[in-house]
Amino acid sequence: MLFDLPDHDTLYRALIERDDRFDGQAYVGVTSTGIFCRLTCPARKPRPENCRFFASVGACIEAGFRACKRCHPLAPMANADPAIATLLNALEERPEFRWRETDIEAMGFDLSTVRRSFKRQFGMTFLDMARHRRLRDGFEALTEGSKVIDAQLDAGFSSPSAFRAAFARLIGRAPGSLSTTGVLLADWIKTPLGDMIAISSATHLHLLEFIDRKALKSEIATLEKAVKGRLGLGSHAPTDQIRAELEAFFAGQSATFTAPLALTGTPFARAVWAELQRIPPGVTKSYSQIAQQIGRPSATRAVAHANGANQLALVIPCHRVIGADGSLTGYGGGLWRKQRLLELERQYRGLDQGP
């Protein structure tokens, strides 16, 4: 059973104080470095906005973080099982290698035993762990203009079908079907709260979502259908603009987003989204308040649905909408992320954020 994590501020204090009470029960992922650590790590402490806390090593790895070489968060698992130690060392030495079951067997290990050990310790298999380390490299190579075969090799996928399958699980499209000259271009944006996918045309931003949002594949499929399959990889001007605006936002410099937006929802949804954009940073409103303000006081449930249909995270600030009782309620990017965004925006409260 996983440890029920305390709030972000409590865990950050524990990190600063190197409190060993949380050792083995909580870990910190540092978004500025891509590294995850024990809370007792002696390394220089990151800024609070660059910290994500997890209840397990597996969750850190699944989120794309690599183990710290100073505090060695994988050491307890490795010490508990020599097979885990050997395989983790092999993965560290050859992160680009595409591991197969036969490779594990060739090292003298029983496949079922290794599978159970890794699932028990990390919540994923050894092969899953190796794939997580390779996929982002392949995506970034593609967005930089590499050919599919080059990106595949850069990411260590010796099998084209394996690379296509892993890529398709991420955005719902095989990489070979994407060029760098599409009407819409998809690009990867790193933020302190996790990586995002931005999709833009030459004139407008159509999508901005965290990559772990469950609705991402269906949202991309809808956009692709609208442009008759002309979806590619790369960066149009609106993506470059939103990347710079996000950097300023997370740096505490500005909560103003002026990138031109493509809003394709119903008139009701667009009215809700327009009202969301009027909520100042550092302020929250309830679904019922939004319904009142758009002149539809009985449409609270429909407002919640429109809020959830927003595919321009942060820019249309659906994270500023909470339950009537003050609860965070649902958020496609995860409630932990919603809480962090609201905490971050306190610094902007009362400031003039007009263009």
Automatic annotation (TrEMBL):
Its cofactor is Zn(2+). SUPFAM superfamilies: Ada DNA repair protein, N-terminal domain (N-Ada 10) (SSF57884), Methylated DNA-protein cysteine methyltransferase domain (SSF53155), Methylated DNA-protein cysteine methyltransferase, C-terminal domain (SSF46767). GO terms for biological process: DNA repair; methylation. Coiled coil: none annotated. Residues 105-181 form the HTH araC/xylS-type domain. The keyword Coiled coil does not apply. The active site is at residues 37, 318. Zn(2+) binds at residues 37, 41, 68, 71. It comes from Roseovarius marisflavi. Belongs to the MGMT family. CDD domains: ATase (cd06445). This is methylated-DNA--[protein]-cysteine S-methyltransferase. Binds 1 zinc ion per subunit. It catalyses: a 6-O-methyl-2'-deoxyguanosine in DNA + L-cysteinyl-[protein] = S-methyl-L-cysteinyl-[protein] + a 2'-deoxyguanosine in DNA; a 4-O-methyl-thymidine in DNA + L-cysteinyl-[protein] = a thymidine in DNA + S-methyl-L-cysteinyl-[protein].
